[in-house]
């Protein structure tokens, strides 16, 4: 199928062509015609399936004739769980808005930076992409009004709920007009997501996209049985002996992320930690340098397991296991994308063994294991 068959306006088709999008993904094929009709949507789609474009294109088209509202009266609100995803989604809207035949201003707002410049910049914003906490701060300061809101999007809804945004989201819903289109996108349909869906969506169209079956197959997985004190030396050995130049390492805590990054730097391996305690400037710089290939190792908490688009990431290391098997799949899904093979390495201590067996069972794939004691890396 081609984008021309989805009912999109010529000015959007021109932007699609200029941005070199060849053909719609399955979620885009399903979502675009439904959203154009103004219907509520519950979209279940994995990370990397193209859902941002799936809702951005029809939202932009539906805004024609609606954007000349009073100053600070926004038309579209997109709620996301992280600062990085807010910036990423806003860039998508801005890219496709280049050829619109009507005025439109987009903006991303999030915590970790001064609120005053954001308050000033809120003038004449039509599409606002926000994290829940900062949105409430701006709303309490009367930085924007919601009377003319036509569309609400919850992107990565399961992640927002996992991060404890339920109370903030309920407060935001109470501020919004009842007559609006609601679009809820999530990688999973957890009980928490179902609860939000039941109060938010009106007769929604369910769109479900399964992860491509060959996604995990593209990923070469290897596990290492080891003691906790062997993790640092083994990580350094793997990076140096294999000459890995771009490695994403996942830890389970902010403290551990900083510790791992510091130890790598002490051994002359260029590394940075990225997590919720870092300033937004630090997070943005580290991620940009990593994507550009100027930073060899990025050590992260599960903040980055979803929502960040790195076209080709060759190596992911699970320094520590996540609590959820689904989070494990999201982590390793950072590699093996766009038909590019990748390596996922997992460190498994004796205490982790049972949990890792549960993860493998859920993943429906058994990982080849190596006993670290058989290697010479200390």
Structure notes:
By secondary structure, the chain is of the alpha/beta class. It has 2 domains: 3-208, P-loop containing nucleotide triphosphate hydrolases (Rossmann fold); 214-374, Rossmann fold (3-Layer(aba) Sandwich). Helices cover 39% and strands 17% of the residues. Strand 3, helix 5 (115-121) and strand 4 form a beta-alpha-beta unit. Helix 2 (26-36) packs parallel to helix 3 (51-62), helix 3 (51-62) crosses helix 4 (83-96) and helix 6 (132-140) packs across helix 8 (166-175).
Task: Spell out the key features of this protein.
globular; alpha/beta; Rossmann fold; 2 domains; seven-stranded parallel β-sheet; 15 helices
Assembly category: single chain
- Biggest sheet strand order reads 3-4-2-5-6-1-7
Main sheet overview:
7 strands, parallel
> CATH superfamily of the largest domain, called what?
P-loop containing nucleotide triphosphate hydrolases
Give Rg in angstroms: 22 Å
CATH class of the largest domain: Alpha Beta
Instruction: Count up the domains.
Output: 2
Number of DSSP strand runs? 14
Helix content: 25-40%
Query: N-to-C terminal Cα separation, in Å?
Result: 55 Å
CATH architecture of the largest domain: 3-Layer(aba) Sandwich
What letter string, H or E per element, gives the SSE order?
A: HHEHEHEHEHEHHEHEHEHEHEHEEHEHE
CATH topology of the largest domain: Rossmann fold
Strand content bin = 15-25%
